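[worker-b] picked up task from shared queue
[worker-b] task type: protein-ligand structure
[worker-b] ligand name resolved to zinc ion; SMILES cross-checked against name lookup, match
[worker-b] sequence length check passed
[worker-b] input payload:
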Amino acid sequence: MRARDALLTLCFAGAGAYGAWTWWEQRQPEPAPRQDPAQPAFAAPDLPEVSGHRRDMAQVELKKGPAQEPRGAPIELVRKNRQAIDALEAGDYVRAIELFEACHAALPADRVFAENLAEALARKANHDFDSADDEERAQAQSAMRRAHELAPARKDIESRLDQMERLAKSEAGFWKDSSEHFDLSYDGDRDDLLGGAFLITPLLERAYQQYGELFDTWPVEKGRPKIRVVLYRKEGFHDATGIGHWAGGLFDGTVRVPVENIQKEKNDLERVLRHEIAHAFISSSGGAGVPGWLNEGLAQYLEYESLPARAQRVQNARERLRGKPLLPLADLQKSLAEIGDEEQLQTAYSEGLALVEWIDRNFGERVPYQMVAGCKQQKSAADTFEKRTGQSLESVLSDLALALER
Ligand SMILES: [Zn+2]
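[worker-b] inference finished, payload out:
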């Protein structure tokens, strides 16, 4: 049996659409001025919440289903099924759905055809759900609903549908504002947000230009949708995402950030928005394969436009690492949010930032961005690094560890 004849079993994370892109950040400057019961005991910036039950909102991934071939299907349907798989693998969702629909219509009782169609619908829905177009987003929800009906046993589809519905509901009635590259939604009942939008779009656009040059990628050009930014009240953010009130922000394909008072929180908000937009660029430039340490390291590195503030940020991270063993890079490949242990999580974020800065300083500022871009071509960050610098990333991590002891 050739693998590609089988039932499609790729998860969304592999498709680069959703699952892997779920980093969220604590927003409080250190030390955290406020004690929320849900807050971890330590108070470093940019640490995801670790209490397990709150993570599921941001971590819906499509799991692997059982691999099967359509049995006893006429040869032309088997052929059509293969063409559909090819189209889906190439990212041509429309064509894939059209072909799978034809197979499903010819043999409605065939479970493999139904589940393949569900997979294609779900992937397209996942992709379209971050569109700035309201109608497209509504269609994405209907498509996900149909995927769930076609494949009711797929718990991942069911969870993602539930999540999409909750997120859509959370944004209902929000004011919208758009700039050249961003669509901003926010709770418009409050005057401070209305006034604040004038403060926000210029900083979003400035970050877009800076990041575009750094990453050498322009996510919104060539007809691609604008980047969505949703500003919630803290309560609304919590209800929509399931993440604690103290959390700073989230990028799940859309940038979602809680804020109570834009004027008062302006500096902090700017830092969080720059961080989350950096994730959007990393996603666009590198796809889903960017290692967690590089993704979070670079996002933290780019938070501050001001160089002294950035240097202080790095210094804080280095202080936190002092006297602790660094984590092996192999443990920092996946989303750092998956690290369960609070202390390790803190180390992982700090290590990512310290390593990105070390690479920038010693090997050139282009290198971290080249490492990200290489991931899209299936080259690991470590391979790209070695190719560019002639040194292994592991040896550089050891050098960093030594430097931290001094
Ligand atoms: Zn992050």
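[worker-b] attaching auto-annotations
[worker-b] The first strand starts at residue 23 and ends at 26.
[worker-b] releasing lock
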